[in-house]
Amino acid sequence: MTGLYDYLQERMKEGTVHLTLLDPDKLDDASTRELTAKLKEAGTDAFMIGGSTGVTSENLGATAVAVREATGLPTIYFPSNPEAITNKVDGMFFMSILNSTDPLFISHGHALVAPYVKRMGVETIPMAYIIVEPGMTVGRVTKARLVGRDDIGAAVGFALAAQYLGHRLVYLEAGSGADHPVKPEMIAAVKKAIDIPLIVGGGIRTPEAAEAARKAGADVIVTGTFVEKESDEAVLRAVVSAAKGIRYGRGVQAANLAAGADVPHPRGEGRRDQSPPQGGGEEVPLPQLRKGVQPVPVQGGRLQVLPAGQRELPLR
Ligand code: 1GP
């Protein structure tokens, strides 16, 4: 069985990887299957599932199952709070928001959910998340002290700190729906500074933006918002192809892609067949988690868990 991190690494050896972010709060079963099948055809490598609000164990698990059945591609839980977990995904980004000012998002929420992750046998990939202006909802919800769009020194500092802390991935995030993605200059400087893979996302919705991020050195490019709004398969394919341009030859131009030029399928020649990981681990009934432990973000400045039947139990 191939693990999720191994799968991503294998894909990265072949060029820039494209991940699609799905918000389970915004998609029903039928639209998830239809959309993800299109994205598989477009060449996406795997699906991240998460959102800043409205994510539950139930909609997370249902989305993961639908994606797996529709595409056979791996699913990655992209958590935003400690209130949802499922063993239906192939793995999760166990992510610390390094520039959050709220301990919940740096390590305390992680402490709440970690025992459940262990019981469920979900693969964890330690990932440092660095939020850059404008930051959007995730910046506000996590009380991030945003890295300025031009503050390359701060971005490099956080990214190097991430590496020295032992993270296996760094994610530079402008925020879902951002007007402008992270600048190529910042991507290039961070990439040059670190030895671990770099993920870039937030506000990438054109072939040009995807190509710029790739050329600047992103190992993984994430798109979310535009796939929710874009139903034209040629455009989906153009953006995914531009993100992964290395695989199709350096002569491929974003403009041609946008105009619908024929692009070899990403699982075509030159690619080694790489089976996606299979989920597994102990089945922990999801309702048990939600009944037994109800993590509560921050109340009175302290992180709390509420066992069933009890109103309050501060975590000390
Ligand atoms: C958000 O980076 C991702 O966490 C994707 O951003 O929705 O703007 O594509 P978009």
Could you write a compact summary of the structure shown?
This protein has 316 residues and is α/β, with parallel strands linked by helices. The protein has helices spanning 4-13, 29-42, 57-71, 103-120, 136-141, 152-165, 184-193, 207-216, 225-229, 233-243, 254-258, 286-292, and strands spanning 17-22, 46-49, 75-77, 91-97, 124-131, 169-173, 198-201, 220-223, 293-299, 302-307.
Numbering strands along the chain, what is their spatial order in the largest sheet?
1-2-3-4-5-6-7-8
Give me the secondary-structure category: alpha/beta
Helical residue percent? 25-40%
Mean pLDDT: 83
Spans with pLDDT under 50 lasting ≥5 residues? 246-274, 285-316
- Termini separation: 39 Å
Record field, number of beta strands: 10
Biggest sheet record: 8 strands, parallel, barrel
Strand content: 15-25%
Shape by Cα distribution: globular
Order of helical and strand elements: HEHEHEEHEHHEHEHEHHHHEE
Number of helices: 12
Named once each, the bound ligands are:
SN-glycerol-1-phosphate
Radius of gyration: 19 Å
How would you explain this protein's 3D organization?
- With 316 residues, this protein is α/β, with parallel strands linked by helices.
- 40% of the residues lie in helices and 17% in strands.
- The strands form 2 sheets. It has an 8-stranded parallel beta barrel, surrounded by 7 helices. A two-stranded antiparallel sheet has the order 9-10.
- Strand 1, helix 2 and strand 2 form a beta-alpha-beta unit.
- 49% of the residues are buried.
- The C terminus is likely disordered.
- The site of SN-glycerol-1-phosphate has 14 residues, from strand 8 and helix 9.
